[in-house]
Design a protein that fits this description.
Number of helices: 15
CATH architecture of the largest domain: Orthogonal Bundle
Structural class: mainly alpha
CATH topology of the largest domain: MetI-like fold
Mean pLDDT: 85
Largest sheet: none
Order of helices and strands: HHHHHHHHHHHHHHH
Distance between the termini: 69 Å
Strand content: under 5%
Number of strands: 0
Shape: flat
Low-confidence stretches: none
Number of domains: 2
């Protein structure tokens, strides 16, 4: 009996060791995976961390070698100085101009792309698929190819040095947003539209009261992408805007850099930090809706 009990104990210990080995393997893989993710995150966070810490440095700390990563003492005055010290650099006006262009463009992008994508996804008409392919093919044409013709067009319309060249294209739909919304609309059951048609609803009413409420995640993606595009746009304002009072924040920061060079690098980084902050806040506030829109888009083709 003692021999049987010893064998049973040995078998139990072997089973426990095997279970521990099986449990340790996933834990080890998880640690390695998360360790690599943390390492990659550090590479992505490093430029942001450098920008933030540099915005709190004095000019002497900026040019110090070796690099001082943590400023001591922190130059908090860089933030008010960046916006109010030099009247020739009206960054608040640039921010106001950028908000105006971005908000109006977002409204136009949501409305126009919703209507065009609805026509491609929910309506049946001859040549629909062929025209959709042509629209998507325009994504292959980069902006520098059409940059000069567009400038000549807007100049012939006498609309250069206005915000129309920046805003109006957003109201005429975008191939990428059309594709994104069309793919999302295809995931919505046709039975919902058919039920509304039986009740006598028009296509415009079906789109506004049936499809759009269900497509809020995708519309949020369109709004966020368009806002980021307009907020960060440098080439468009550089081409079409001449008056300094009409500059957007991208041009304003470049103008500030040209004026100061490296003499007020802390203030330049402070202005850059404030400029980036709205994008970060909007992304985190709309993160769940944004990810949901990206996840659900393209499930049906």
């Amino acid at each position: 009996m003692a021999r049987g009990a010893s064998a049973a104990l040995t078998q139990t210990e072997t089973g426990a060791a095997e279970r521990a080995r099986r449990l340790s393997a996933p834990v080890l893989r998880g640690l390695v995976k998360h360790g690599l993710l943390v390492l990659l995150c550090c590479f992505f966070i490093l430029p942001w961390f450098w920008m933030l810490t540099t915005s709190l440095k004095t000019q002497a700390q900026v040019v110090e070698i070796p690099i001082r990563w943590i400023p001591s003492p922190a130059a908090w005055q860089n933030y008010p100085n960046a916006f109010f010290r030099d009247p020739n650099q009206p960054l608040l006006l640039y921010l106001q101009n950028t908000v105006y262009v971005a908000v109006v463009s977002v409204v136009g992008a949501v409305i126009s792309n919703t209507m065009v994508a609805y026509g491609f996804a929910r309506l049946q008409w001859p040549g629909r698929n062929l025209l959709f392919i042509v629209v998507i093919a325009t994504l292959l044409v980069p902006f520098p190819v059409v940059m000069i013709p567009l400038y000549l067009l807007w100049r012939s319309l006498e609309l250069t040095n206005t915000y129309w060249p920046l805003i109006l294209p957003a109201w005429l739909a975008s191939p990428f947003f059309i594709f994104l919304l069309r793919q999302f609309f295809l995931t919505i059951p046709q039975e919902l539209s058919e039920s509304a048609r039986i009740d006598g609803a028009s296509e415009l009413r079906i789109m506004a009261q049936v499809i759009v409420p269900l497509a809020r995640p995708a519309l949020a993606v369109v709004a966020l992408f368009e806002f980021i595009r307009q907020w960060n746009d440098f080439l468009g304002p550089l081409i079409f805007l001449n008056e300094k009072t009409k500059f957007t924040i991208a041009l304003g920061l470049r103008n500030m850099q040209n004026a100061y060079g490296l003499s007020n690098f802390g203030e330049i980084m402070a202005a850059s930090t404030i400029t980036v902050l709205p994008i970060v806040l909007i992304f985190f506030l709309a993160q769940r809706t944004f990810i949901q829109g990206i996840t659900f888009t393209g499930l049906k083709g």
